[in-house]
Specification:
CATH topology: Hypothetical Protein Ychn, Chain: A
CATH architecture: 3-Layer(aba) Sandwich
Shape: globular
Largest sheet: 5 strands, parallel
CATH superfamily: DsrEFH-like
Order of helices and strands: HEHEHHEHEHE
Structural class: alpha/beta
Number of helices: 6
Strand order of the largest sheet: 4-3-2-1-5
């Protein structure tokens, strides 16, 4: 049997609205790693990123996405695929920076002009060492 105080405590706990939002999280620095070509998995990862930003708050997160290996196909396809352009642009509008591995670009024998909206500032020499450098700078690593 519950005592009166325990019952009162339980009622107060249940009556308290559960509010989750940016105020519940400290500022975050995150690097998402995408090196796979599965379009549905990339779409799910982009969904994770949107949810992450919404939960933490755009002003409380520094979020980067490393694109290398087979994932480069997504940026190539986006040059002519408006749905992929919208997906990338919506994340960029939330200050997500997409980083691209130059080693992968060279292996594909491509230049920046072959990718959708990638600038020189978005290039890293090698994806994995860049991820390690970001981790050393305090970024948390995620690979959904």
């Amino acid at each position: 049997m519950f005592g009166f105080k325990k019952l009162l405590w339980l009622l107060l706990l249940l009556a308290t609205p559960m509010v989750f939002g940016a105020e519940n999280y400290a500022p975050q620095k995150v690097i998402y790693h995408i090196n796979y070509s599965d379009i549905s998995r990339i779409g799910a990862t982009f969904g994770n990123i949107n949810n992450h930003i919404e939960a933490v708050g755009e002003d409380h997160i520094d979020l980067k996405v490393m694109i290398h290996g087979a994932a480069l196909d997504y940026l190539i396809a986006a040059t002519t695929d408006s749905a992929k352009q919208i997906a990338l642009d919506s994340l960029r509008l939330q200050d997500v920076q997409f980083l691209v591995c130059n080693n992968t670009l060279q292996a594909y024998h491509l230049g920046l002009e072959d990718l959708y909206d990638v600038a020189t500032k978005d290039m890293v020499q090698a994806g994995l060492p860049a991820i390690v450098a970001l981790q050393q700078a305090g970024y948390m690593y995620l690979r959904p």
